[in-house]
Amino acid sequence: MTRVNLAIIGGGLVGASLALALQAGAKARGWKILLIEPFAPGDSFQPSYDARSSALSFGTRQIYEQLGVWQTLSPRAEPIRQIHVSDRGRFGATRLDASEEGVPALGYVVENAWLGQCLWQSLDRDVVSWRCPAEVKAMQPIEGGYRLQLDDDTSLECDLAVLADGGRSGLREQLGIHVRRRPYDQSALIANISPGEAHAGQAFERFTEQGPMALLPLPENRCALVWTRQGMDAKRLAEIDERSFLRELQDVFGYRLGALRQVGVRHLYPLALVEAEEQVRPHLVVLGNAAHSLHPIAGQGFNLSLRDVQTLAEGLLAGPAQPGDLATLQVYHQRQRLDQALTIGFSDQVTRVFGSGQPLLAAGRNLGLLGLDLLPPAKRWFARQAMGLGTRPDLRGRA
């Protein structure tokens, strides 16, 4: 039976990033890494108006620089040079500026297909192999590892299984790993927008009584929209005609980018904060959205997962010759516990406080936004959270 040192179940952005972070050290140790992914990556990047995208923090750029992929990735990474945070109908607002923080950009917005292509092409095929398209149907703990049963009726064994198959992981449930789930009673409407004026690297976070929204800069002067609304209202917005949709969006967002001209395909995602109650077991790690799935409005989810990836890779390469040792995995989880708690707490509180229509909370957040502009230390703290640097002293905020 085939046996590998590491089997990464899920070859998406998190799984591929882990393989990349491990491959140089794995080659030196003679490890073999297998990525198992149900959807085959494309042979080439195909630009699309409707491409889904991710917001990468400045800290994520630093990690990808260390992994040697940023130079390849950067030509289609649209820099966020300013973030404008406002509360609809109130005076409270604050602006974060990359130049004030001493960085070239507060973050970057990258199409997922491009990010995936850059990661996959950077993998060393002598160390990292693929089973794709393939899906793990069952996992069984065995002495010194796991046995994986694939959907083509083949099996393989591994010293360490990394579960990175997303927030709706069926394998997580199969293994009896419980989750804490806190629904937001909201859905995120995701779409790309063409504004009438140049976005000039500006990102907008806008809070309303119906829920928060974000508009992020993309290449070709597009913007990525994340609009959070109550379930039935979100469904209505997803189904109305383009002209009516743009009219409602314009009314909420205003004319900071001129008249909104085009909207692409609209997608809806029900929102909840989901945390796995176990992230490590002997010979098993739960990673990415399978470990923690956050509200998208604060843009922290993938960036936190990448910091998990970096810490896990460092721990594995400093650990025993055979990966999967529980003590090593527990050290990893302990190192990331504070980062996860602070990032999840920050994301959750921003969502709950700024998404509420209660008068007292609305007045408080209005004063809070005014206070950020008046108190440089508070503004600096908020900016570091946005840049993914607030919980990691090893990532520096100044380039």
TrEMBL record:
Enzyme class per UniProt: oxidoreductase
Q: Which GO terms describe its molecular function?
A: 2-octaprenyl-6-methoxyphenol hydroxylase activity; FAD binding
SUPFAM superfamilies in UniProt: FAD/NAD(P)-binding domain
Q: Which UniProt keywords apply?
A: FAD, Flavoprotein, Monooxygenase, Oxidoreductase
All residue ranges annotated as the FAD-binding domain in the record: 5-336
Q: Which GO terms describe its biological process?
A: ubiquinone biosynthetic process
Provide the protein name. Answer: 2-octaprenyl-6-methoxyphenyl hydroxylase
The organism named in the record is Pseudomonas urmiensis
Per the record, the gene is ubiH
